[in-house]
Every structure is written in C-alpha cells, then in structure tokens.
Amino acid sequence: MNNSKDNLDHAVYPGEKIALFFSLVVLLFLGWVMYTIRPSLLVITILGSLIYIRGHQGQLLGNSALVTATNYSKVNTLVEQACKALQIDRPRVHIIQDPYLNAYAIGFVKPFTVVIHSSILESFTDEELLFIIGHELTHIKRRHTMWLSIIAPFGRTLPVFDLIFNFWQRRCEYTCDRMGLIVCQNLDASIRAMIKISSGAQALKHTNHQEFVKQSLKVKSKRFDSWSEILGTHPYITNRVTKLNEFYRTSWIAQREAASAKAFVVIPCKNPECNARLRVPDSDKPLLVTCPKCKTSFRFEP
Fold first, then answer.
1. Per residue in 207-259, pLDDT tens?
2. C-alpha 70: how far from its chain's center?
3. Domain ranges of the chain
4. Residue 260's pLDDT is what?
5. Cα distance between residue 235 and residue 216, in whole Å
6. What is the DSSP track for 64-83?
C-alpha cells in the first residue's frame, strides 16, 4: 500500500481544519459566557458528556462481542489492515446486534472504540467492510471523536451552535470517506458501501452509483433542497458519492490503476470454442499463456 503520510494528509477535505477552528472559537465564547453566569454549569456539561461516553464504552465491553484474533477473526484482519494503512494504534472494535446498517466511533482518550452493527457483516463484502472500518478509524485518527465529546453537549443545548458545528462535521465525513477509500483502494466498493448504508442492503439490485451522481445534480439545481443539507451532521449521500469520485480521479490510487492498465494487453483465447478474453503483460517477448476458463495453453507472439 502506498499510504504515506503525504497521501493521508492529501485526503483531508479542504476546510475541515478551518471549520473546526471557527467551531472552537464559538465554543470558547459560549464557555466563557456559561462560566461567567454559572461556572458549575460549564464543568457539569463537559464532565457529564465525558462520563456518559466512558460509561457507554463500558457497556459495550460488557454486552457485545469484542473483535480479536479469535472473535470475528476476518473482521480482526481487516481492522489490523486498516490501522496499518492509517498509521494509528488499534482501538477496541465491537460487534453489536442491530438490523440497522451503521457503524460509529466514540472516545475522548484511549481506549477509543469502533462499533459495527451485525447487519453490516451480513450484507457487506470484505472490501465494502474495509471502507467502513477505514472511515470510522479516521474519525479517531483525526480526533473527531475527541472534539465531538466536548462540543456535542453544547449543540444539544444551543441549536444555533449545532448548525455551526455541523459545518465542521460534514467536512469530517468527506475526509473519512477519502481515507476509507485509501484503506479499501476500491472506488466501486467504497461507493457501494455508502449506498447500502443510505438505502439498504438490497439497494444495489435496483440502482447504481451513476444514478446517485445524477441525483446529486438534481439536488444542486434546487436551491432550497441544496441548502437543507446544513441541517444535518452528514453531507447528502449523493454529494458524498460525487465528492469521492472527484477525489479518486486525483488520487494516487487512480494513477496506479492507470499505470497498471498500460502494462497489460487483452487478447482472445486461441481456443475457437472459448470466448474468453485474457489480460496478459504487455511484453515485446513471446509469452506462454494458459486460459483459466478452458485450460488451453498457447504461445502469444506480441
């Protein structure tokens, strides 16, 4: 994997850091106001949030399956792969029984936690699951979970601040999608995972990501529909699909695949009864080729 620090830094969505800065400025102002009016209220609000999160982590440890080398070993392998790609320490990963397709990350300090709903394991391929794991691990890597632990209680108390904070959260999601793709290294699998999360496990039997791109254009053409996105913590799924496509075209993954495609040629099988087309190295020397479909071996002269 070509997951250098530069590639990971390149995956950070533009404006994420600036949006966090403005959110923190507003948070500090609100904190100062609360401290001036009633110091104990500020302390109780923050401590209450941190205690709740730590308690939730304890409940997960006591009530759900912890992913280990012997528990959900396939998921464990994917988690190890994703942690290595993102260059982060491994968090706790739990599987909880839930029919709703979802996964999330929580934690203020170590141990951080990633939770995967059991329905995802039943409906996602390994590559799709790897994208989801990479996405959630990025929330930890980029300290999204840490800031969320502090800021979220103020948003629940002050809806106006929630709108400001959501501006940052939506950019965080774009960053996580990008790094999920870097971990997965498969654009189609990444987009399939997002579509399944948004529209259900069977969605791909009825639609495809190109339709979601077209739908994104429809949303942009309607100003009110487009602006309604500011009410959510996540960007529209149509926008996420479009943005991930745009990032992919400028990423080293696309460049590597383009270079790989140039290094091969496609030839027909020499067996007249076989219609297979074979991908062989682009070489100026003769090659001995065996068709995997009909098992016919023949000499290919460039």
1. 777 777 778 777 776 777 777 888 888 999 989 998 998 898 887 776 666 65
2. 25
3. 5-258, 264-300
4. 57
5. 11
6. SEEP-SSSSHHHHHHHHHHH
Q: 3-state DSSP call for residue 100?
A: coil
Dist. CA 190–CA 36, nearest whole Å: 47
At what angle are helices 159-184 and 237-250 packed, to 10 degrees?
40
β-pairing, 287-290 with 264-268? unpaired
In angstroms, rounded to a whole number, what is the distance separating the alpha carbons of residues 174 and 233? Answer: 11
* Closest C-alpha among 155, 164, 158, 173 to residue 49: 155
One-letter amino acid for residue 141 of the chain: K
pTM of the entire predicted model: 0.79
What is the per-residue pLDDT across 153-211, written as a single tens digit (0 to 9) for each? 765 556 667 778 888 999 999 999 999 999 998 998 999 999 999 999 888 888 777 77
Region of 62 please: left (phi>0), alpha (psi -120 to 50) or beta.
Answer: alpha
Q: Which two tokens stand for residue 241?
A: 């699909």
| DSSP secondary structure string for all residues of 245-278 | HHHHHHSHHHHHHHHHHHTEEEEE-S-TT---EE
- Mean of all residue pLDDT scores within the chain: 86
